[in-house]
Amino acid sequence: MSIALLGVMAMQYYFIRETYLQESQLFDEKVNTSLSKVASEIEKSEVLDFAKVQSRVNRDKYIFEQKKQQKLAQQLSIQEEIDRLRIKQQNNYQKFKDADEELKSRYPNVTPIDNWFYETYYRIKQNRRFIQIRLEQEPILGTTLANTYVIVSATREVPKIAAQDDSVRYVISEFDILTGFVNWYQIATLPPKEDIKINKRITDLLGQLDKIREDLLAESNPTTLFDTVAILSGKKSTIVEDVAMSVQLANRPLHKRINTSRVQQLIQQELAGRDIHSPFNMEIRDHFKLIYQTSDPKSLLEPEKLTRYTTDLFKGDIGESRGRLSIYFPNKKNIIAKNISYLLFPTIALFALLVGCFAYTLSIIFKQKKISEMKTDFINNMTHEFKTPVATIMIASESLRDPEINSDEKRVNKLANIIYDENVRLGNHIERVLNIAKLEKEDLKIERTDVRINNIVEDVLESMHLQIDKANGVLNQELNAKQDLVIGDELHLSNVMFNLVDNAIKYSLNSPDISVKTYNSNNKVIISVTDKGMGMTKDQQEKIFDQFYRIPTGNLHNVKGFGLGLSYVNDIVKRFDGKITVKSEKDKGTTFEVILPLKK
């Protein structure tokens, strides 16, 4: 059993460890992907910001230098109109992008569809039944993971209906996790990405602008490439402009190129998008020089135990990338443990149940072993107890067969009395054993009648007075219970008193000094039996009501009994809704209290 338990422990440990490693690898992939996305966003933002500033500078210079010339003024007007239209178009696109991001953040499954598909299959209600929405998985090379896609198609071809507008439409769907079938879907319509009329207008203006530039080039007769670039004024991207802007941006100090609060916000957004909401520490370095750091001092005490995630910044710069962005999680182990808690808690619970069953089984085995030993001791003791009266009866019987003794009437009567007494003694032993057996089988007949406790105690003490006198003992009785009427069985309650007083006599080291009291408390009658005998330890007090248990007396065997008396007493008292308690000190004495409810 122990080997099997250890094997299960080893298997559970291996299973949990492998799950933890897989979850850790997935966590690393999410963080690295988030960092790469943030680095890309930082570089894009820098280029856009610089382009906006440079555009304003060039426009101001162009206006200042060329405003006197009518064609240049016309060129400026056209260019401003183009810029205004582009800004308007950019605003339209930004509105579409914001709406698109909001839609995708609200719904996990958003699938784009063509406008002709919408007009053909959705606008016409009878064609909606041909729409099919399903999930497809594409394995990721080198891993056990797979990308899941939502595919929207038609199960039947019908005549196409041309798109009526240039809006952007999506199918929003929800699938049943167990079956993989779609629960519901709906169509979301977003505004167009671009206004066609604005694009047409920009194209016309660009044509006019190109014609004016050709006239300016013809009139100015530039002598250098830079003169040509100055006349173009940055309004049309070229290789020369890209290289110049890249060199100019790369020469700026790193701390001026990065907005740290914006970087931290971007990291939080990207991690949250991948379901990582834990705090992190961030570092930004220029080559080997630390220029920014947000960290918890406690997490820096053992930096070698932290997993660091790093990505290069401004990879588009000419030459080697100067910047490094790093983050690390002080509580990474807790994050991963939380992610697998759905698996960890049931595993621990089942393992605890298994260990509990194992411990319970061992406990039962040891208890059975102990009970077996106690039964063996009981049988040996019972044999000895039965052997004595049987031997006495045999000797007396053989004596009666002697003619000389047989002729003496007094000796015959004496031997007959001995045989009778020993038979009674033997019958009492048998009756006690049978009563315990009947208690276990629920066959013991118990009457429930009105019983006066004081009368029972008085009768039992009177019958046992001879035994106490024979042992030169002292018996004190105080029957102070004014209310002593209970529901019980007179015979069995008498046996309870007999057992308690008999134990007080047997376990007294010297002459017995026994006190028996009755009194009332809280609508109950209490019978107290106190002796000044050998007493008990706390461990023995917990076991004395068990069957077959007898308090060890060392090498002395002067205490007779089967270890059944107190077990019988406890069972009888409980059957009448009472309880029995014991207070004892080693070598100082013992007090038993029987508490019975009064008849209402």
- The unreliable regions are 222-227, 233-240, 554-563
Global structural class: alpha+beta
Task: List how many beta strands DSSP finds.
Answer: 16
The biggest beta sheet is recorded as:
5 strands, mixed
C-alpha end-to-end distance = 55 Å
Q: What proportion of the residues is helical, as a percent range?
A: 40-55%
Gyration radius, in Å:
51 Å
Number of helices: 17
Indicate the mean pLDDT: 77
What general form does the structure show? rod-shaped
Concise overview:
This protein has 600 residues and is of the alpha+beta class.
Would you kindly provide a written description of the structure presented here, covering whatever features stand out?
This protein has four domains: 2-51 and 248-339, no CATH class; 67-220, no CATH class; 341-421; 445-597, 2-Layer Sandwich (Heat Shock Protein 90). Helices cover 55% and strands 18% of the residues. The chain is built from 17 helices and 16 strands. A five-stranded mixed sheet has the order 11-13-14-16-15. It has a four-stranded antiparallel sheet with strand order 7-6-9-8, covered by helices on one side. Helix 10 (341-400) runs antiparallel to helix 12 (409-441). The chain is rod-shaped and about 170 Å long.
